[in-house]
Amino acid sequence: MTAEAFAPAKINLALHVTDQRVDGYHLLDSLVVFADVGDHLWFSPANELSLEILGPFSAGVPTDHRNLVWRAAEKCGMTGHIRLQKNLPHGGGIGGGSADAAAVLRHAFRGEERNLLAVALGLGADVPVCLSSRAQRMKGVGDVLSCAGPLPELDMVLANPRVPVPTLEVFKALESKCNAPMAEIPAGSSREEFMQWITNQRNDLQPVAAQRFPEIGQVLEALGDADLARMSGSGGTCFGLYPDSNAAAAAARRIAADHPEWWVTTTRIT
């Protein structure tokens, strides 16, 4: 019997880089939420592990151990055929590969009482937060997680210029490694109160990423009518927070018409 899993896009509403360990890993303080758009996976029984990639962003995606989905399946001792529909852009700062790997772990250990944090961390810093598709504060190297909800509903436009942004390159270029952490998240606040709070937070990677990849600045400019426009993660997807779904849909239509080569979509964070 074939099983299906959804791997939602991960959005860093804020990302503060607070320090760097002696081993080179950066310490973060980030508010992570999940969209209602993402990749899809299907798992079918088979004697050997195999991976098939389809979807609008399937081109160039490896179907062997170079793929995080494959490595996650190997860590779980999985066999079978995995079909992965890539709906999210590569190198987009919205956790496509990490969310896919987390979906594999959830499928492999479904129904089991097991702490998957260590397994997830072995695959990447963003994989643990993707195990649970709910708003979380992510600290440390992705290993310190706490519930960030409830948050108000947020209507959002996601836009990506289809320019992959290498995470390691952006972190390496970051000059200031020790920055202030986020202020305490106002759980249960109104949208107005939350917007006031989130506007005062940062993405410390945004300036260096925008300097190295000018397309990010173009996306942020296109989202200039939003209540807040910011880059997610290490880029190059940016988000705009709009007053309601109608405003978000209108902005998405305008941006898609002006930039038909970009990936543009609306989503609601609940």
Spell out the blueprint of helices and strands.
Elements: E1 3-20, E2 26-44, E3 49-54, H1 68-75, E4 80-85, H2 96-108, H3 117-121, H4 127-130, E5 136-140, E6 144-147, E7 154-160, H5 167-173, H6 191-199, H7 206-212, H8 214-222, E8 228-231, E9 238-242, H9 245-258, E10 263-269
Parallel strand pairs: 3-4
Antiparallel strand pairs: 1-2, 2-4, 2-5, 5-6, 7-9, 7-10, 8-9
Structure notes:
With 270 residues, this protein is of the alpha+beta class. The chain folds into 2 domains: 3-147, 2-Layer Sandwich (Ribosomal Protein S5, domain 2); 154-269, GHMP kinase, C-terminal domain (Alpha-Beta Plaits). The chain has helices at 68-75, 96-108, 117-121, 127-130, 167-173, 191-199, 206-212, 214-222, 245-258, and strands at residues 3-20, 26-44, 49-54, 80-85, 136-140, 144-147, 154-160, 228-231, 238-242, 263-269. The strands form 2 sheets. Strands 1, 2, 3, 4, 5 and 6 form a 6-stranded mixed β-sheet that branches. Strand 5 and strand 6 form a beta hairpin. The longest helix has 14 residues, at 245-258. The protein is globular, with a radius of gyration of 18 Å.
Note the main attributes of this structure:
Alpha-Beta Plaits, 6-stranded mixed β-sheet, alpha+beta, 270 residues, single chain, 2 domains, Ribosomal Protein S5, domain 2, 4-stranded antiparallel β-sheet
In short:
The protein has helices spanning 68-75, 96-108, 117-121, 127-130, 167-173, 191-199, 206-212, 214-222, 245-258; strands at 3-20, 26-44, 49-54, 80-85, 136-140, 144-147, 154-160, 228-231, 238-242, 263-269.
